[in-house]
Amino acid sequence: MPRELIDSISAQYRELLAIARQMASRDAHLERSKADYKAQSDQCEPIKLQTWDGYQQGELTAPSLAEIYAQEDAGEEARAPAEHEDQLQRLFTALPYIWNDPTAMVPDQAASRQEDEELKISGGTIELTCPITCQPFVRPMISRKCGHVFDEVGLRRFLERQTKPCPQGACGHNLSMKDFVPDLVMQFRCLLHEARGPLTRNASEDPADIV
């Protein structure tokens, strides 16, 4: 798969993520402004015959939604959500490396996210088996806290609806099922491995070991 094509798709996807973050931030901004406007309006004197002249002459004032929105807007940049690495973005980054070898490590992720501690690694490759069940991944789940990956069946059996230390030795994080999300990269690794079958497995074997 051409690296240039993956880079182009990944860049476009990052732009879409940035637009989505901006839209979500603006929506939240508007909702805050509306809530502030309502709170301030509730504190104002109701408009009636006795107060009408006061509002007309400026002795009484009512809040302006536009002004409140503008005041909120001044601090919006500081509150803007931080960019985060989306699951699909991780997949786009990994594709050029795992397309030919689903067990290959992803150098950029290994450096920036310490992926070498994220998964079981043997001989510089990623094992496609769950550390809990010791079986091939069926529905891999990745921890948002520590990045370790386990199969959902084994994970539920291990946690038993409780909060427990991460099954990966020496991790130290306390985890529950709500801390896990599906791992698209591992899912794609497993799909590629299954689709390629013997071709993928033979590619990683040493020719000298083949009789």
UniProtKB/TrEMBL annotation:
GO terms for biological process: double-strand break repair via homologous recombination; protein sumoylation. InterPro entries: MMS21_N (IPR054753), Nse2(Mms21) (IPR026846), Znf_MIZ (IPR004181). One of its GO terms (molecular function) is SUMO ligase activity. Keywords: Metal-binding, Nucleus, Transferase, Ubl conjugation pathway, Zinc, Zinc-finger. Its main location: nucleus. GO terms for cellular component: nucleus; Smc5-Smc6 complex. It is found in: Nucleus. Residues 115-195 form the SP-RING-type domain. This is AEL053Cp.
